[in-house]
Amino acid sequence: MEYKTDIEIAQESTPLKITEIAKTCGIGEEYIEQYGSYKAKIDNSFLKNCNRPDGKLILVTAITPTPAGEGKTTTTVGLADGLKRIGKNVCVALREPSLGPVFGVKGGAAGGGYAQVIPMEDINLHFTGDFHAIGAANNLLAAMLDNHIQQGNALGIDPKNITWHRAVDMNDRQLRNIVDGLGGRMQGVPREDSFDITVASEVMAVLCLASDITDLKRRLSSIIVAYSYEGKPVTAGDLKAAGAMAALLKDAIKPNLVQTLEHTPAIIHGGPFANIAHGCNSIIATKMAMKLGDYAVTEAGFGADLGAEKFLDIKCRMAGLTPSAVVVVATVRALKHHGGAAKSELGNENLEALEKGLPNLLQHIENITKVYQLPCVVAINRFPTDSEAELALVERRCRELGVNVALSEVWAKGGEGGEALAREVVRLCEEKNSFTYSYESDTELMEKLEAVCTKIYRADGVELTANAKKQLKQLEEIGLSRLPVCIAKTQYSFSDDPSLLGAPRGFKITVRNLKVSAGAGFIVALTGDIMTMPGLPKVPAAEKIDVDENGRITGLF
After folding, report:
1. What is the DSSP string of 483-537?
2. pTM of the entire predicted model
């Protein structure tokens, strides 16, 4: 059987005008700003003026990712379409793709097969320009910081203690560590500098966690960019940069409205990369989805130890959200990979490898049900090579933990393939839950780190390098050591070592850097070898992407 590519399926679809989608879900024309015929921004005043009750919030997350793939976004979209097919009023809220992975190796974030959001080419490329605006605001702050030093340095900024990085939305390892300001006295002050990928910028987190423009400006003002020679924090507010940054972000803060292939309304706004950022879409987008649907389906980045942990411990805490149910996406193929099976052998039945890999899924389940005390269902993203014996083994082991399994065939069948999952999610949403966090707000930073690392990763503890210990002391001195923690680590393992698959034990997490994101309201802890600027692979996806004389894009998944 010959399969169509994602882009072929998307380009053959017949979308409704975005004004029809808006009308269907009850958004008045006065709140819609069209970007062409099939995408629009929703003015934030809609949220303030909407008196509808909140719908139930459903979080979709996944097992620890492998090269075999999991299909989290595809399942998220298919679940929303499945809920619509069984008669539920639903809206899906997703994260925007970063250009780095689109042209690199990971791919986009528009779903796949017959469970996609469209127009997928626009969504995966420039979309409505949000990430460009975020990068511009980030780099405006960087320019104003260096200009302040050049123009006399009234704040006494120590050029060797600047923590603010420049940003570009591309995988570009060449920019990880640079020297700039060269060329003579009038060209700036020479110093070491670096770039982050735009999604790792604190401006991205600020935009995603802000409740409105006023809150956005407050958070931007609080961003710490450097320290003075006396060790005092220097903020964007000290540089008088927050107003201009907010002006660049005035449209970017508005969520984007699109649709699925089956015309389910979809809000896409901010937030990828849960391995190096908090990895959630915006609070505004999620709250809008909850107003537009009786069920709001959203996702968090990478595995549940990263995306779901940050969604629950950071986003839900700050926004006062309580999920009604959690979906953990898994594939038999990925679980066999965790059990030691080679990628080339994943299509063959292998109950032994599956049994060895299952603890990864079971640990994610226990984190959701026992640590966060939330109802959970496992969605098996089914592949044609999955045997009945393998599927039965997964179902049996999950039910031992009191969790049901639903087969998801949304890639091939769209919403029809998500109906079984949708029914189980509706059932779970009627259950009472006792949602709690993995740590308390008023505990010290080390207690928070220990809680996440021991409860969620199952590490034996946390070790700080000498540099991280120095940074911790500084955070304590300036009174910011009790903020929530955003741990940046490899997405490929519960540990900080990407080679430790499955559910490893007997390891510790090494924190090498602690960076305060005072505007976002959390402290970033960098572990292992994780970097905030990825690189392109040996054969980047960009080599296969093209556009013809009619503007039709090919090779985009």
Report:
1. S-EEEE--SS-SSS-TT--SS--S--EEEEEEEEETTTTEEEEEETT--SS----
2. 0.95
